[in-house]
Design goal:
single chain, alpha+beta, 12-stranded antiparallel beta sheet, 4 helices, 12 strands, about 30% helix
């Protein structure tokens, strides 16, 4: 019985020891992915901001500018692209909607972001766009890869339609979560006017005829939970200017928007709680279960060897054979 039990334990030990690396290095890269139908929204605010009054073409201080960002997974589009891409694809239709203190629209910027569900690498397909203009993204946007590394990444900037490095600046603690802090600076760059302007009757084409151009710069900051690759918090020091042309009445430039945009407190709390929950799920496949299976395999192996050794102890007496009585001669 000991011999049989030790062999069974040895088989289980080999099974769990082999399952440990398979789960981490084979199963996890294939199972961990962004769901195609994900939906999320976020509200950011810039208090004491500067905003252009298009009626007077004068910059004025306002108590608050609100930015509402929404991300909606387009399942139908992802299914269609997957047929030709040959891999799991996520299509995000996103919108960044900016409104002034009176609730009126300042600007809106729609995007279609197409990327690999597992690695977050961009997938170039028909429909990839910013504000209706076709683009070819390089690098990441919105989310970092699972198992984020302590290094710089290429990050796509929707205003300039280009990618630039976003630099790893160090590891920090953000409300009880270990995060990697990243920062990107976009220098003053001439950018396109939004397709939808805040004043009725004004179009990008009509503004272009005046010779006025739009310029933009930002310092983008993200605090990223490295296991999930999800930002738990973000900020932007954002500035926009109109320069030159007859629209400014002889002035060289005027501030269109300037503010320190920060995530609203209730959305910070929700995001931190969500990321903590998702982090536990990822750690199950990358750490808890692989290490648990490895420890279990070693324990079963030790028990198997112990039982095998007990079955061959030299001190055990040899079995004796019963001696039959000899017949008695009469």
């Amino acid at each position: 019985m000991r011999r049989k039990a030790s062999l069974i334990l040895l088989a289980f030990a080999v099974f769990f020891a082999a399952l440990s690396p398979l789960l981490r290095w084979y199963a996890f890269p294939r199972l961990a992915k962004i769901p195609a139908g994900q939906y999320q929204d976020m509200v950011l605010e810039a208090k004491d901001a500067t905003l252009l009054d298009y009626g007077t073409m004068q910059a004025r201080k306002v108590p608050k500018v609100t930015v509402v960002q929404t991300i909606k997974g387009n399942v139908e589009a992802s299914d269609r692209i997957e047929k030709t891409a040959g891999r799991d694809v996520v299509v995000w239709d996103t919108l960044s909607y900016v409104q002034g203190p009176d609730g009126k629209m300042v600007s809106k910027l729609p995007e279609r972001y197409i990327f690999d569900a597992h690695t977050q690498d961009p997938v170039h397909a028909t429909g990839e766009s910013v504000d209706g203009d076709p683009v070819t993204r390089e690098g990441i946007e919105f989310k970092w890869p699972f198992q984020t590394e302590k290094r710089d990444y290429e990050y796509f900037d929707a205003q300039t339609r280009t990618s630039a490095p976003i630099h790893y600046k160090g590891t920090q603690d953000f409300r009880g979560v270990k995060v990697y802090y990243f920062e990107q600076t976009i220098p003053w760059t001439k950018v396109a006017f939004p397709k939808v302007m805040p004043v009725q009757g004004i179009t990008p084409e009509s503004v272009a005829k005046t010779g006025t151009t739009r310029w933009y710069t930002t310092v983008r900051k993200f605090w990223v939970e490295p296991v999930t690759g999800a930002p738990v918090y973000g900020e932007e020091i954002h500035k926009e200017e109109l320069r030159g042309g007859t629209l400014l009445g002889g002035r060289d430039k005027v501030t269109a928007f300037a503010g320190h945009v920060k995530m609203r407190e209730d959305y910070i709390e929700h995001t931190v709680a969500l990321v903590k929950s998702n982090r536990t799920l990822v750690l199950l496949m990358t750490s808890y279960l692989p290490w648990g299976f490895l420890v279990l395999g070693v324990a079963l192996l030790s028990l198997s060897l112990y039982l095998e050794a007990r079955g061959h102890r030299p001190g055990d007496p040899a079995p004796t054979r019963a001696v039959e009585p000899e017949p008695v001669n009469a």
